[in-house]
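FORM 7B - TANDEM STRUCTURE REPORT

SECTION 1: FIRST PROTEIN
SEQUENCE AND TOKENS:
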Amino acid sequence: MWKRKLQISRTRASRRNSTAPAEKTEVLSEDLLQVEKRLELVKQVSHSTHKKLTACLQGQQGKKLPLTTLAQCMVDGAAVLGDESLLGKMLKLCGETQDRLAQELIMFELTIERDVIEPLYDLAEVEIPNIQKQRKHLAKLVLDMDSARTRYYQSTKSSGLSSNLQPTGAKADHLREEMEEAANRMEICRDQLSADMYSFVAKEIDYASYFQTLIEAQAEYHRKSLELLQSVLPQIKAHQETWVEKPCYGKPLEEHLALSGRDIAFPIEACVTMLLECGMQEEGLFRIAPSASKLKKLKASLDCGVLDVQEYSADPHAIAGALKSYLRELPEPLMTFELYNDWIQASNIQDQDKRLQALLNACEKLPPANNNNFKYLIKFLSKLTEYQDVNKMTPGNIAIVLGPNLLWTHNEGNITEMMTTVSLQIVGIIEPIIQHADWFFPGEIEFNVTGNYGSPVHTNHNACNYSSMPSPDMDQIDRKQNDQSRRPLSVATDNMMLEFYKKDGWSLSFKNLPGIRFSQQSSLSLWCSYSFIQGWVLTDSQTDNFITFSRHVKFPHDFPLTGWDV
């Protein structure tokens, strides 16, 4: 009974073995198995890089390059604007440059496509897939070999022969031949696959060179593009430098003067000459704000060098506003950051003579361009004060409204600090310079430097108050020795310094002598707000009315002296 059950069990096991799949045999070495894993990774990376690199090509699928389209647009725009305009010249030059850059880009992309993109495609889509295809074929051959071997061994067991003995007969020979043939085919495929895998490993340096080629091609493309751009830049700059119409607002003074070939900034000369014609008697000039739209238009006109004098002659406040804006928008104040401390220290000097000398020293330290324009402006402002009875713009008033546009610090504080500085320091700098403009800047000046305006020549309206002026060729030592002779003639009483401006004629005497007689409207200008005039008496020569100053009092800047005796 037991023997019967054992025989049935063997029969069932035999049937299961005859129908079960053959066990797979691994025929590749451990090294080749690692290469197989690397093949898949390289394939993924190569495929992704190929896809992204192809997307970077701007001229793919026969499309026109964006640079080519841009170049054509610029050239067409240049034809519309014409070579007479700077913009037209720039468009033409830049359009030609963009076209040449497009040609360089085309050559670069062709090189990349031939030497990088196509080899990457072959690697990811041809070479590695072929190896993987062979690997699958080898797996099939190994399975066939294992199946043939299993059938052969089954026939051996069924014949009852020992495992050391080979079966005989036609069927056994056929199974053996089939097993040997399968093993032979597997070996051939394995050897070919192994060779391809080892070849792949050996050629990794070649695959890596694709990316070296990419960088080299990019470097060459950018080098040629840079050389092209560098060759064009001088031409572009030459067009810019030779173009006459250059903006001036917000530009450094020396840069504007150098580019325009001028000594006096265009906005300063244009505004001054127009104001000399139409604004000298305008009340509140530089103080009253102009129309914002009119000011903006005038600034834009000055910026492009196109100015309609007739249009703005009816609005002197706009002209004055444009001048103030130009001074304020300078990157560095006309009186310079470097000399700011010198100016402030000079304004703090109590002694009037020493204060004037310190201000003069600061003026002489100004750079030539700043000095010329400052002199030009001060001479004009001095002339403007001749009409102060009408325009109400005394030297002090002018200093208040224009001072902050002539001098400021690098880092301005809050509004309160700024206003304090303006009232106590900057005004004390600008006011005496305007009052004694012909002492600070002796000689006449031609306001209409370029001859574009019909403005008068400024004459020395205080000529009677000056002794001989030093020669411009005089050296610094001789100049200082003549400082006393250059100072305005004045009458000093205690700490007061009065300067009398001649209007029509006057005579000078003190007590028991003929008094100072002002036959027409004149003004008594003070160098400081507080003057000590104790003991002075002003008497009206017609009504015998008089004013006696019995103590130190505050004296007004502009005291009307028509018909009064001192």
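SECTION 2: SECOND PROTEIN
SEQUENCE AND TOKENS:
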Amino acid sequence: MFILKTSNSISQIARLRSPKFRQTGTNCTLSFWYYNYGESVGAAELQLLVDGEKKPTILWRTYYSEGNQWLKAVIQLGRLPHAFQFSLDKISLGIYEGVSAIDDIRFENCALPPPALSCEGPNHFWCRDTKACIDNLLICDLVDDCGDGSDEESCDPDLQCNFEKGLCNWEQDVQDDFDWIRIRGPTPTANTGPLKDHTTGTDRGRYLYLESSEPRQFRDKAVLLSPLFNPSENGTCVFRFHYHMFGKQVYRLSVFQRTVSNTKGLLLWYKFGNQENRWIRQTLFIRSSKPFQILVEGTVGDGFTGDIGLDDVSFLGCTLYNGNLPTISTTTSGTSVPATLPMNNCTEKEFVCRASGHCIQMIQKCDFRPDCSDKSDESACVMEVCDFEDKDLCGWHQPALEQMSGNSSIRITRTFMWQLGRGANLCPEQGHCPLTDHTTGTEEGWYLFADSSNGEFGNTADIAIPVISLTGPRCKIVFWNHMNGSTIGSLEVLYKSSNRTSKLWTQSGSQGPQWNRAEVFLGVRSNFQVIFRAKRGVSYMGDVAVDDITFEDCSPLLISDKPCTSEEFMCANKYCIPKNNLCDFVNDCEDNSDESPSI
């Protein structure tokens, strides 16, 4: 069907009405092909007319000539429970000719789920009237998936919010750059943001959105805080939400989980860039051994067509926590000691074993060999093997970040830094960070990565270990690294002793979409730290990640009370080493006597 404009009349309007439809299912979409060509062909828009509502909802618009070509429009309708019809309005302006046409109108996935004869199993829900069998994860998500509303009955209102009457029990963060805005209808800027909310599918419904126009600046952040929840170690707590990311300059939406009130916590999920003009559902399974809170963070892109929408947030299988989250001390990791020590006769140069009060030399603390019966001499040290699977940094810490967090006047929200992440939750499409970890080879595995969506070109992020007192002659670090992306920076392994820092290993540029093994020899060293330094590239398309960091054969040599055997060599310091380790260019004795020319 087409409109051929040949008249000179100003503001001619052609209107095409659809038949009436009774209702639609949750995943309903409308698509059609359109042609809009001519010097003053004018605008066209598709309106939704719902029975009982006076004002139509704009579903789609084209403002001008789009060339001598057919283009496809796809419109998300979603669940519309009341009778409705469409109106396609075409306005022509000026005196020049123009042609508008429409063809191949198609509705897809618009029926309600069919009735089922049975609906067994704990993962399904049997709808009361329609007898449809739906997934249990669709219960109490603010969407009428059944078609009779039975999946949304008996739901706890404290675990869901559609923002129709406010923020419910969610709050705006006061430590961010600006706030989410509650709105109905289109956002103020054309070609970005939603035209309607997700709850009602019309412009009378309300939702939250992030405004990217001035005075907002690139990478400004708006954070929304959930209520607090009790621990959920078995993963039965589920967070559902719908997001809208439409516009050429849309940047990032992130979800964090925190158990400490003055940190951002663990990154559970994020999405970059334009995701088209549609609401998208996301489901996250939450595991936590401590009370926790969810943070939804929107980040402004480099321009005004970067609005982000949020609607219909809900929790399933979660319970509210009646208390407050603790705060974390900004003291450098590995330096804290208990307030009281057991009775002892140790000097200031000795370490006190926490259980027995036994005294050991300070050089024996953090040397990869437990000398105390309770292993307390190794408790505040770096772990010998770290795979990050328990979401523990294993003693690794970020000195610069701790200094910044200790200064309340400095914001760390946009800092290029290391953090824990996992799999496809982070970047399933761009591929510039790992889709799976190295330890488990799955999307659920954890690793450490330097988030290049923050910071600027050339920024560095350091993560270090507590001071190691002494290592043995064959000590080495083995780790796996992932460096993929068009603008990847570099990764360095540094050695720091006192005020002197030297480079042990470095790698720069993209190394491909796989985990790569690296090995760094340390040998005999004392009172030193190891630092992993990531340097940011020119853009966010390239995250440096590491996993499975192991300190191999790092405990120092042990002096035995027994004499050396015939197969061993006695070092000048009384250590015994295998004779086949002599003159091998390795300081096995730790005093170099095994490499002496006089042997």
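SECTION 3: OBSERVATIONS ON SECOND PROTEIN
Residues 430 and 541 are 8 Å apart (CA to CA).
The radius of gyration is 31 Å.

SECTION 4: SIGNATURE
Preparer initials: ____
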